[in-house]
Design brief:
This protein is mainly α. 52% of the residues lie in helices and 3% in strands. The chain contains 13 helices and 4 strands. The strands form 2 sheets. The chain has a two-stranded antiparallel ribbon. A two-stranded antiparallel ribbon has the order 3-4. The relative contact order is 0.16.
């Protein structure tokens, strides 16, 4: 999440030249536009960088074709089925799987792995709590581990899904207890964990009261019937109608 529509890690999704011609996703007319997904922006995703690094270490000749493994706790679905369920190409899925298998030979990733990944990419702060929340959002079965299928389906939504799909995923992240509602306390917990992970060496600088101010502003707009909770319909409708919130909701390209 970003503060006041500005990226906390230095910008939103850059263009093909690595520059950000419209900081905060604004055009000259101050109207928000969805940032373009480039290969460079894809590689900014911490989980993708983690996977690709493992693939590089493993070497280019270790492709497993249609995901054939001899000894694993979980064997993923067929490549064709995953390609139909995601926005990734066949080659992208193969590359992601090689890295996933190299890091997680059992075919499953646990919460401690998520904490290690985000601690590596955000050494300036404490990523433990945010990694916990993010893991729970991926762990749809609530069994303490994430299958490769769930991993890539989630990544596909976050990186290449529609605005509505991304907002639904974001709501699931904020809905910590998975009761179908987001409370102010839940939103505050997620926001605080992101600010803690980003650390104090961010641009713009982060004040101690920034998470509180951010949540108060968002919640006031989203909780339209003033019942103290935000439903998924309120969340999506408010985000899509409010340009400032949409500009700030570029959470995924920055801290996923």
């Amino acid at each position: 999440m970003q503060a006041d529509g500005k990226a906390m890690d230095g910008g939103t999704v850059p263009d093909a030249n690595g520059t950000d011609p419209n900081p905060g996703g604004k055009t000259d007319g101050s109207k928000w536009e969805k940032p373009r997904l480039t290969r460079k922006s894809l590689m900014r995703c911490c989980l993708v960088k983690w996977i690709i690094a493992s693939t590089t270490q493993q070497g280019p000749d270790s492709c497993d074709g249609d995901f054939e493994l001899s000894t694993v706790r979980h064997q993923p679905e067929g490549l064709d089925q995953l390609q139909a369920q995601t926005q990734f190409t066949r080659k992208e899925l193969q590359s992601l799987y090689r890295g996933f298998k190299n890091e997680c030979p059992s075919g499953l990733v646990d919460e401690e792995t998520f904490k290690t990944i985000y601690s590596q990419f955000f050494p300036q702060g404490d990523a433990t709590t945010y990694a916990h929340f993010l893991f729970n959002a991926f762990d749809m079965d609530r069994n303490g581990s994430i299958r490769f299928e769930d991993f890539v389906i989630g990544l596909s939504v976050l990186l290449r899904g529609s605005v509505t799909e991304k907002l639904r995923w974001a709501f699931n992240l904020y809905d910590i207890n998975k009761d179908g509602y987001v409370t102010k306390e839940e939103m505050m917990s997620i926001m605080t964990s992101i600010y803690d992970m980003m650390g104090r060496h961010t641009l713009p600088s982060v004040r101690d009261d920034s998470p509180y101010e951010h949540v108060e502003r968002f919640f006031q707009k989203m909780d339209r019937n003033r019942d103290g909770v935000v439903t998924i319909d309120e969340f999506i409708e408010t985000c899509q109608k409010d340009e400032n919130i949409m500009a700030s909701m570029q959470l995924f390209e920055n801290v996923i």
